[in-house]
Amino acid sequence: MCELFCLSSAQPTPVSFSLQRLAQHGALGQANVDGWGLAYYDDRDVRLYKEPEPAGESQWLSFILGRDVECALAISHIRRASQGALTHANTQPFTRELAGRMHVFAHNGDLRGLPGLEPDALEVFTPVGETDSELAFCLLLESLAPLWLRAEPPSPAERLTVVTAFAHDMRARGEANFLYCDGELLFAHAHRRRPFDGVRSQPGLWRLDRAPAGATDRMADHGVTIGAATAGQPITLVASVPLTDDAWTPLREAEIAVLRAGRAVTGP
Question: 71 and 7 in contact (C-beta within 8 Å)?
C-alpha cells in the first residue's frame, strides 16, 4: 500500500525528507515505486513537489534535501498505484484552493463505487486525473464548500462533522486512510491497511506526540529529519507505520485525529 506521513508543529520547524527510505516502511523491499509527493505550507500557500517516478531515482528529492526547509504543516505520500495511470496528475498529495485557503489531501487505500461526475455530485471541484483518491478529495471539498463560503470561517466542530460523514462514506467503499489539511487544522483518519499478504488489518495510521529526546535522530535513519528547533514546542507526527521504536500510538479504526499547531484539538 501507499505510505502517508504528516507533521504538525506550533512553529516552523527545520525538516527534510528521504522519501526513498520512508517508502520502505511497511513495504516488501521497495514496492512503493509508482510515485512520490511532498506538500508543505509556506505561509498561506503550499509548496508542492511530486513525480510519477520512484523516489530513489528523483533529482527533485536531492534538490529538496539540499534546501533548509522550515514548515509547521507538511504532508507526504508515496504511491503504489491501484487506480489510474502513472502520471503527474495522478500523483499525490492533491491541492485545491477554497475560500482563499490551500487545501491538501493524501489517501492510502483503494476505493470502489465512488459517484460519477454528474453535476449533482461535483458542481465546483473536478478531478484532473483518474484516481479514486482525487475524486474523493473533490467530493470532500464539495461538502465543505458551503461552510467555507460563509462570512466567517467554520468552527473546528463544524469542519469535523463534515469530515466525519465523508470518512464514514469512504470506509464503506474500501480502505480509507487519509490526511486532509485546510491550512489551519490537519485531519488524520485511520481505517484499515492492506499489507502484502492481501489481508486488511488495523491500524491504518500511527501517531507520535511531542517526540522525545533522541527520537528525531532515530527518525533520520527512516526517512525524516527534524531539526533542533522543535525543542520545547508541541509537535505531532502521523505515519502509516511507526518510523522509530518510540511509543507511537495506533489510531483506532474510524478515529479522526484533529491537529492544530502540534496539539490535538478537543473543543469547538
Answer: yes
